[in-house]
Design a protein that fits this description.
Blueprint: E1 7-9, E2 14-16, H1 45-51, H2 64-69
Antiparallel strand pairs: 1-2
Length: 71
């Protein structure tokens, strides 16, 4: 099976730009094609925030002052 994905290299690790449906510890072979700057994707803050999969109360935005300033 061959699948092409886009990833970002941070100096130590490659991070895929989208989720990959592979079981943990699956061995893969990686070929690297460096994209020209015009084809490199920029990652928005919203994409980064969504990728963190953070959880919180459902009324967080409606009660931000309560969560930030109450003791």
């Amino acid at each position: 099976m061959v699948e092409k994905i886009t990833a970002v290299f941070n100096g130590q690790v490659f991070y895929p730009a989208e989720p990959i449906a592979l079981p943990i510890n699956t061995r893969v072979r990686i070929s690297i094609e460096i994209l020209p700057p015009s084809e490199q994707e920029t990652v928005s803050f919203l994409q980064t925030a969504r990728s963190l999969n953070l959880e919180g109360p459902s009324n967080w935005s409606a009660n931000i002052d309560k969560y930030l300033y109450s003791k």
